[in-house]
Amino acid sequence: MSTETETGDQHGSRTGDQTGDPVLVGVDFDLIPWEKWQKPGAEGRVKLAYTQGLRVRLMELPAGFDEHEWCLRGHQGYVLQGEFTIHFEDRSVPCRPGMGFVIPDGEKHRSQGAEGEPTVVYVVDKVVPTA
Question: Which of 2, 33, 63, 105 has its CA 20 to 30 A from that of 120?
């Protein structure tokens, strides 16, 4: 039997464990404001939530975005709208709505959006500590 209790906040439902530390369970993106998101070649917007050492994002990038820099952070995600391609050093993988993707840590990659409509993706990755 669990002793967890539920409370709500502006970012979704939370469930506390026996130590009293809150754990984000549900993310209500409707309540999270859009923030500007920018990388060389890709300017868009993002809604962010953090829980259990993870960063959870809803991202919207314009049609035709083209990231210039390689990324080494692993990501998992799901495509909601638009089409884009994930480029690796040795291959490219097209992604379309309804597809998920899993990129492991250390796998050099960058993304490029198709022309026509914005790309909207749900993305989860580990929080990287800053020094």
Answer: 105
Dist CA 40 CA 128 (whole Å): 20
State the Cα–Cα distance between residues 112 and 68, nearest whole angstrom.
Answer: 9
3-class secondary structure, 37: strand
For residue 106, what are the contacts with CB-CB under 8 A and spacing of at least 6?
72, 74
- Tens digit of pLDDT per residue, the chain (131 long)? 322 222 333 344 333 334 455 677 788 999 999 999 999 999 999 999 998 889 999 999 999 999 999 999 999 999 999 999 999 999 999 999 999 999 999 999 999 999 999 999 999 999 877 76
